[in-house]
Amino acid sequence: MRTIRSIRQALGAAFCALAMFAPVRASAEEITVFAAASLATALSDIAAQFEAATDHRLSLSFAGSSALARQIQQGAPADILVSASPDWMDVLEQDGLIESGTRVDLLGNSIVLIAHGAGAEPIRIGPGTDLTGLLGGGRLAMALVDAVPAGIYGKAALENLGLWTSVSGQVAQTDNVRAALALVAIGEAPYGIVYATDAVAEDRVTVVATFPAESYPPVIYPLADLANRDVPAEAEFVDFLRGPQARATFERQGFVVLAE
């Protein structure tokens, strides 16, 4: 009996000693990420990569940047925001809703004209383009032109090229840019204005023209940690978004990575 007791005591001491030298692994956490709808494809892939590399779990919520900002203002329990609108990020920063020193310009993008189908003919987009004639009585799909960044950028481009007045009555506005993409993909609208990265994600549309960069403000996606709570997983994911694996995913999707 003494021998068995002695063995148990020795084993217990050994396990305690091993535990003292075992690496300490952070407990798993779940964080909520709010992101612009145009990031849905890339961020879903990156989230899977992050979860595979850590014990953490991500809850992703995609919508128009204006809708996301308003939800955050109303107390939505989001931890991280990747917006397509520097202006809305400015508003949240002024409201004290983002963690000081965490904001960074993460990505860039561009605006394109897409057409339904895989073999649509390219067109030249400029001041003399007969966009109304191209629509042929159909609709031009766009995100909300006074609220959602993709719609705001698209309207600015059309105004600068002198095309907005002629086509404004034929614009079908949607809550976010992915909804505008879907209208063109299913043939409900013959043409649409979306981000270049949206077109990459949908094989039922063709990019027929790229708007001149000088015709609209630079498309910038700011990233920030929100100020509602502070857990280690938030910083880990922010670092991951700026790391080489995420960079490769963003670039495959057609984004320009701005953050180092």
From TrEMBL:
GO MF annotations, alphabetized: metal ion binding; molybdate ion binding; tungstate binding
Annotated keywords: Metal-binding, Molybdenum, Signal
Protein origin, superkingdom: Bacteria
Pfam families named in the record: SBP_bac_11 (PF13531)
Residues annotated for molybdate binding in this entry: S38, S65, A150, V177, Y195
Gene3D superfamilies xrefs: Periplasmic binding protein-like II (3.40.190.10)
GO annotation (BP), single: molybdate ion transport
Any one GO CC term of the record: outer membrane-bounded periplasmic space
Signal peptide from the UniProt entry: 1-28
Matching NCBIfam families: modA, PRK10677.1
Family: Belongs to the bacterial solute-binding protein ModA family.
Oligomer status and interactors: The complex is composed of two ATP-binding proteins (ModC), two transmembrane proteins (ModB) and a solute-binding protein (ModA).
Protein name: Molybdate transport system substrate-binding protein
Native source species: Roseovarius azorensis
Highest classification ranks of the organism: Bacteria, Pseudomonadati, Pseudomonadota, Alphaproteobacteria, Rhodobacterales
